[in-house]
Design brief:
With about 525 residues, the protein is α/β, with parallel strands linked by helices. Helix content is about 40%, strand content about 15%. The strands form 2 sheets. A 10-stranded mixed beta sheet has the order 9-18-17-16-15-14-13-10-11-12, with helices on both faces. The chain has an 8-stranded mixed beta sheet with strand order 4-3-2-1-5-6-7-8, with helices on both faces. A hairpin with a 2-residue loop joins strand 3 and strand 4. Helix 2 crosses helix 3, helix 14 packs across helix 15 and helix 15 crosses helix 16. The longest helix is centred in the last third of the chain and has 23 residues.
Amino acid sequence: MHIVTIEEMRELEAQAERQHGLTSPILMQHAGNSAADIFMAQLLPHHSINDLEVLFLIGPGNNGGDGMVMAEHLIKAGALVSHYAWKQHKLTVRGQDIDEHHTSEELESVLQSADYVVDALLGTGTSRPLSDDMRALLERVKREGEQRPELRIVAIDLPTGINADTGEVDPGTLKADMTITLACPKQGFFFFPAREYIGELHVGSIGLPTDLESHLQTEMLNQGFCHSYLPHRPLNSNKGTFGKVMLFCGSAAYPGSAYLAGSASGRVGAGLITLAVTEKILPIYASSLHEATFAILPEGPTSELNRGKTHERAQALSDHLPGYRALLMGPGLGQSPETRETILQVLEYLRSEPTEKRPHLVIDADGLNNLSALEHWWTFLPEGTVITPHPGEMSRLCKGQKVSGGSIDRLALAREKAQEWQVTLVLKGACTIIAHPDGRVRLNWKANAALATAGTGDVLAGIVTGFLAQGLDPFDAASLAVYIHSCAGERVSAELGNAGLLASDLLPHLPRVMRDIKHNAYRPGSDITERYEEK
């Protein structure tokens, strides 16, 4: 499922008319019918359409036209529909036009009895500030919702006042409980503050041939995508079939990082997990990671007299790597000069090996922090590396450039740096971005405050590494990992709320999410639906 800018959406519609004769009225009919079908499909488990009171706020353009088609569809299904044409100040209540002298009081009465208000005022192409009278109308609806929490707001294409490119929001914008966007999700939905105004997101059809989207480079992660990329699990397999993972992670000060990452790799199906550790900290992991094996490394240098141990440590780790499909370096390692030197020597070994013989590399946390101290650090990386920075780490990699956790600036930066650094870049945040060196980008819809806690990034890095071990391409492994990680977080927060999640809580949910996605049975609480025409 592709994500579009305003200009890309306009071009899709223009191509549909030029190449397929799909004029604006035809597309509008498809859009309104699809929106009505989605609305009723979401409604029916909870309510009957009969006697349901729905107020449509109708704008002067195509968005208003989509709303009118949807309204007609609901009337035929038995709903009690009223619509207010904002530009003309014209109110129609259940098919009867209201005299203009009584419009205000009748609109107030309809609003007070409505079960749903449908926002079909302004669509994707609007970027200027809302007029005062439109803000006043939306403010009145907002006040009614505050007085009656059971009143639900549904936006067609997007909530009026959102900039579909940047995610900026007009002060008058009304938060939707559900947004039925049309044809494709819009770029601005994935960035703040707009993300908080969308509510539950569904994608309706306007009848566009899918081949028109083939040139688009921004994609949406969803269940259908992940179903197609889950690693195959043949019956005649053994642990070697699903790959071996090596982790150079953790230290006496940060032992949990290696535990979380290693456990996550195993929970998503990697065949064998090995931790590269010193004998001194081996007991910590041997008592908690019972299924793992261990590569014993020399203790690090403690004085000028044994600096050569850095080379010995790197050599010992490199000697263990043949036969491993994936290597994770970084979480919990610390940032000493000796650790940095060990990382650089391992990277040198990896670059010297033929691509088909060396493991795929994931670098996270202290691996990135150590590299960020170097000029042109990306030149030390082997081809196909995956890096997984959070905004603070990304800022350090960009030599102090400020990086937000959820604003539109993240998108251009991620795309630019993935190309410059020639890495698969996972820029973590409220809606995580996965960027490919060739310019392709995938965005994750699932923002979840419960995941804002220590160790969840280690789990994500371990998931990426586990999928690489099972043979996935770096871009696909990273994308699948981000989605499954967020689904697991969604499940935990459904039980606990949006605070109190511990990173280890995610681990048992990872295989359960994969099982449900495999059988198309995952039932998310805040996920985007598959595109309606594919249902």
